Amino acid sequence: MKTALITGITGQDGAYLAELLLEKGYIVHGIKRRASLFNTDRIDHLYQDPHEENKRLFLHYGDLTDSMNLTRIIQETKPDEIYNLAAMSHVKVSFDTPEYTANADGIGTLRILEAVRLLGMEKQTKIYQASTSELYGLVQQVPQSEQTPFYPRSPYAVAKLYGYWITVNYREAYGMFACNGILFNHESPLRGETFVTRKITRAVAKIGLGLQKNLFMGNLDAKRDWGHAKDYVEAMWRILQQDVAEDFVIATGVTTTVRDFIRMAFAEIGFKIRFEGHGIEEVGILDGIDEAVASAVLKVDGYKVSVGDVLVSIDPAYFRPTEVDLLIGDPTKANEKLGWKPKYDLPMLVADMVSSDVKLFQRDIHLIKGGHKVLNQAE
Ligand code: NDP
Ligand code: GDR
Question: Considering the domain 3-183 in this protein, what is its CATH number?
């Protein structure tokens, strides 16, 4: 029975990876941060009572900014595999908290690698580092592959650039089995609510149910290669099952604008959106309603919006000081060496996210109608 340690187990990827590894028979240790409110929503379904026999999921308090804590957890859990997923992962927020981001995302990676080395575990513990397509930043060439030069465009990406290279360096200097997965954007119903896809699918559900009037967005021209997180955690695991430690690009190879993602998401609830104007003057207007699709999805309150309403507006607050305009990954190496191919395409991803958010808010409406208080969820 193998043992894995997941940093960032309470995040989107941590939750799907923990589920996958438990299914594969692993003992799974996860590091969670102490918070004033519970932050384990995404893994509560995996929770096992501490008194249960054959328990295989264990949580430890910790933080990537605390070397001693990380060293102790690694020493105690003796993992065969470490998945370093913890990070301050929001690109826009990294402009507000650049030093903390460097500490957690950059030096945090060093802390894990150095702990394994100091403990003399460099020949027994494999390490996965959550690297990112944000490393490519300013477009040099497309599609982006393992050979494409990096040009990071945010404090987040610069911190992750350090994480990438320190992982390569420990592999080369100490013969450690340490690999970078250069993952392109991946989303799911568990995606954090302030990332663009989830922000859109939540708003689509709420607008459709009459709970929200308008969606405020930033740059609609950005293009992203979006996949499903479930597929991407499978790739992480495969990367560590290789005989030789290597870095891999994980992507779908298809790119789409934020604007088209919005169109697709509204289409899921039967709304057609027309975009007019340019730059911060651009708006998305409800152009038509497909009654058949809409009535199938919107079972609670019916429509509160009409054709001609402005449903999408631009707010410059959501623009970044430096933007990554175009990401499109070349997953050929992963296809060939890992035998990895995504099961979800973009339409399936959008459908999964919108239907999940519609259910979420339909449940809220039932609770409100039943006189229960629903916690305010941040936009
Ligand atoms: P999330 O933001 O959903 O999860 C991040 C996790 O890291 C959470 O568990 C969070 O804890 C934890 N965390 C944050 N800061 C610290 C810290 N200082 N110490 C310990 N834990 C911390 O990210 P994702 O699941 O989407 O991404 C996983 C990793 O993959 C991240 O490193 C991200 O940068 C990277 N990545 C993500 C991509 C994507 O498209 N999703 C693409 C490429 C790379 P808490 O729950 O308490 O906030
Ligand atoms: P990204 O994801 O920055 O690619 O990083 P995000 O979903 O935040 O942005 C994608 C693109 O959408 C544009 N955008 C907006 N973004 C947000 N969040 N909110 C808006 O209102 C909005 N309007 C337009 C952005 O400008 C951007 O171009 C994600 C994170 O998961 C990283 O941790 C990971 O490394 C990369 O993906 C790969």
Answer: 3.40.50.720
To which H or E segment does residue 283 belong?
strand 283-289
**Statement: 196-223+257-321+345-370 belongs to CATH 3.90.25.10:** yes
**One-letter amino acid of 286:** L
| ipTM score over 0.85, yes or no | yes
Q: Give this prediction's pTM.
A: 0.96
- Residue 196 CA to ligand 2 center (angstroms) comes to 5
- Provide CATH 3.90.25.10 ranges for the chain: 196-223+257-321+345-370
Q: What is the distance in A from the centroid of ligand 2 to the CA of 92? A: 8
Rg, the chain, Cα only: 21
In the chain, CATH 3.40.50.720 sits at 3-183
- Expressed in angstroms, the distance from the first to the final Cα of the chain is 42
d(CA 356, CA 202): 9
Per-residue pLDDT reduced to its tens digit, 281-306: 999 999 999 888 877 676 555 557 88
Closest ligand to Cα 104: 1
